Amino acid sequence: MVRLYALLFLAQISLAVCALISCLSAEEEAIRGLPRIAWVLVILVFPLVGPIAWFLAGRQRPAGQAGRSRRAPGARGGPRRPPAPDDDPEFLESLAERSRRQDDELFHRWEEDLRRREDDLRRREGDPPREENRPEV
To answer: Which residue stretches belong to region Disordered (predicted)?
Structure first.
């Protein structure tokens, strides 16, 4: 019987800790009913009822749960959050464009370095440097 009480005590403590973490990490817009400090006090003062009340009435349900109205994101009047970077096509396009620009710059630096090295070799051998517009055969 003592083991059962110890198990229930641990379950109650873990429920309270989870509720406290959830309450303290929730955004202000997601807390319903009472201010955050009041919810913390309810969770701490009423060991079993407080955490259950927090999970049922104190916070908004996540978007995927049943029972929530099927409105478009941001339709409830609150500020819309920006999409995650990997979901934003403009951000992905800017990454691709930046990568293309960096590749072009690197390619041009390599070409300049190669031309400079070729000219240095030609000067050492006594040949005139090649002209820019004339392709080499």
So the answer is: 60-91, 118-137
**What are the pLDDT tens digits along the chain (137 aa)?**
889 999 999 999 999 999 999 999 988 888 888 889 999 999 999 988 999 999 898 877 666 554 444 444 545 555 677 777 777 888 888 989 999 999 999 999 999 999 999 999 888 887 766 666 555 54
Domain range summary for the chain, segments of one domain joined by +: 1-61, 84-137
Pair 34, 61: CB distance under 8 Å:
no
Q: Quote the pTM value.
A: 0.45
Query: For residue 17, what are the CA distances in angstroms to 24, 53, 82, 134, 137?
Result: 10, 14, 31, 76, 77
Q: Looking at residue 88, what DSSP letter applies?
A: -
